[in-house]
Amino acid sequence: MEIYVVKAGDSVDSIAAATGISVEALIYYNQIPYPYKLAVGQALLITDGNFWSDGQQQRTITVNGYAYPFISPYVLRETLPFLTFLSVFSYGFTTEGYLIPPVLDDNFMIVLAKENGVSPILTLTPFGADGQFNNYLITSVVNNPAAKENLINQIVETVTMRGFEGVDVDFEFILASDRVAFAEFVGELRTAVNALGYPVSVALAPKTSDTQQGLLYEGKDYALLGAAADSVLLMTYEWGYTYGPPMAVAPVNSVRQVVEYAVTKIPPEKIDLGIPNYGYDWPLPFERGVTRAKTIGNIEAVQIAIEQDAVIQFDDTAMSPYFNYESEGILHEVWFEDVRSLREKFRVIEDYGLRGAGYWQIMQLFRANWLLLADTFWIQKQ
Fold this sequence. Notes:
The protein is an alpha/beta fold. The protein has helices at residues 12-19, 23-29, 73-79, 107-115, 135-142, 145-162, 179-194, 222-228, 252-262, 298-307, 339-352, 367-376; strands at 2-5, 43-46, 60-67, 85-93, 99-100, 119-124, 167-169, 200-204, 231-234, 271-276, 279-284, 294-296, 313-315, 320-327, 330-335, 356-360, 378-379. 33% of the residues lie in helices and 22% in strands.
C-alpha cells in the first residue's frame, strides 16, 4: 500500500492512472462521495484491496473497538472483520452494586460479533444520572465489600447469560484516595471473570509519571492496575478536546511520551494503544470556558475542507492533519486523523512491542484505516 497526497489539479482519474489502480478502487477504499471531488493536501490510501495475504505483516496484534448499541448494523458489519474484541458501551451500576444495562438492546452486537469471530466485551462505566462519570459511585462500591461482591456477581451472571466474552473497566475521575481500592476491585473482578475463561481489561488515563496531578490521573496507578488486569488500554487521545484549544486529538509526540512511561510499569504485551476515530472543528478565536468544538468524523472533515476550498496541512511534530476555513464570518480550525497520522500510531505499536490497538470509537466507518491496519499487522481472531 502507498499513501498519496493530493496536489492542485489532481482528480480521481489522474491519480488512478498515475498509481495503477482502478478509479473504482480509489473511490471505494477512500470513501470518496460523488461527484468525487478532492481537497488539496488530502491523504489517499492507494491499494487494490489485497491486504490479507501479501505476507508483509510484521506480527499479530489484538484490535478492540468501542461501540454504542445505536451503531449502524452496516458500519458494524464492515468493521468486525478487523476486530478481535467489540466493547459494548456501556453497563452502569448503582451504589449498592446493581448492574444497569444499556437503554438500547445490545443483543444484535453480541450476535454479529460472534458470527465474525470477534469477542463481545461488557464495558463497565460509573455513569451517574446526568450521564457523566461519577466518582461517588466508584467510591461507594470499591470501598463497600457487600456492594463490590454484588456488582462482581451481577457482572459474572450477565456475562454468562448474555454471551459476553470479557469485561472492560472504564472508570474515570477516580479519587486519589481510592487508588488502591480501585485496583483491588479490578483484581477481584479479574479472578471472577477469568474463572469463566474470559479476560478483564482496564482503561488508563494517559499519564507520563507516577506523580502526575489531576483528577484524571491520581486514582490510576499504572503498576497496580497493570498487575490487576489481563490488559490495559492507554487512552492516548483527547489532547485536543471539546472544551480545549485547537490541537491534534492524539499528537504522536505526546502519545510516545505516555507509552514510554507505561512500559516502565506494565509489560508491553499487556498494553493496547488508544486510537481516536474522530476529529474536532473549533470556532475561533478560542475562549476557554466559552468555545465548544464540534466532534466530526474523519471522512466528514475532508468533506468540510472540500466544501470550504481549504488546503489540508500536516503538522510534522504532532504528525496530524489540520486545516482552517471561514464560514459565515467565523474562522474555524479542524484537526482530524488520516492514513498518515494513523500510520505513525501503528509505528508506535510496533516500536514498543505493544499488544495491540483500541479504537474510540467505531461508530463511523473509516475504511482506509482498517485496510492500512490489516496491511501492517495480522489481526488476532477467536
